[in-house]
Hints:
alpha/beta; 6-stranded parallel β-sheet; 42% helix
Amino acid sequence: MTYALGTPSPTLQAARDGPHKETYLLGYPLKRTYAPYLHNTLTRKAGVPRTYQKVELQDGIPTFLDLLNQENFGGAAITMPYKVAIMEHLDDLTPEGRAIGACNTVYWQQSSDGSRKLIGHNTDCVGIKRALESITTPEYREKSRGRPALVIGGGGTVRAAIYALHTFFGVSTIYIVNRDVSEVETVVRGFTESPVPGFEPTIVHAKTPEQVEDLEAAAYVVGAVPCFPPVTEAEITARETVLAFMNKPEPGVMLEMCYVPRPWTDLAKLFKTNGWKVVTGDQAMIWQGIEQQKVWLNCSEEELPVQEVVAIVTEQVIEDSATGSEPPLK
């Protein structure tokens, strides 16, 4: 059953009437993140007594294990470098967490027998999905099914992007460009050694601009690397390989996941100048965070003031980019 905004489900109403709970962003280091502002704005607007804070885990997993067993624990977001390391401490994974092989969301689930299980989930894929959907039409998405896509990078976000592109957009072949060959091999090995039924993308490591000449143009591109100019030979070759995809005759859609210190990175500007539709990574961040709150509050999107929060956080990111201000916490 779906509940309209202003008509909360029993679970959301219980969260509103219940005790104050703490939710956390756990990782290291945590710089210029808008996650606290997003989550605190959302729960405040939804009337839920929860606060969200970032905790830098310099000692790794032990601090996390202490937090999740506190009575007021309301859920946790996990970021680098713990998205994979946390998995061995969980009781179960959602299909998304299992397929992607990395978890950015953790919560307690009550079983029918009264026992509790600690569940690992991944909402990054939903953030990528919603960001790409925001600048594409149903006609474009249908026309692009079966066409290749490109992901740039080699970390956990790349794994989520591969999952999103293959599962939600019907991409069959996914090219990876990255300066570090071993990182690409790790990504490929992670998918091939732990196969998930129905999830079988073809992954191709595109290493040089010359190789790109013989490859089909990408309908989607997801950039998942920091906003630094290429310096080393490997970085320069990777950038030239990406530009070879960009310069193919059929411009497509690009999501630039890096949005700090400014949403419009040099790479995003290059793609836009060359005729691509571009969406910035703050949108993926916002939508994956909304998905996390749906899990933690056990409610539907329709029950939450989603559009208002999207507008507030988007405006804040743009304003801070112009002024150089640090992200607010609430």
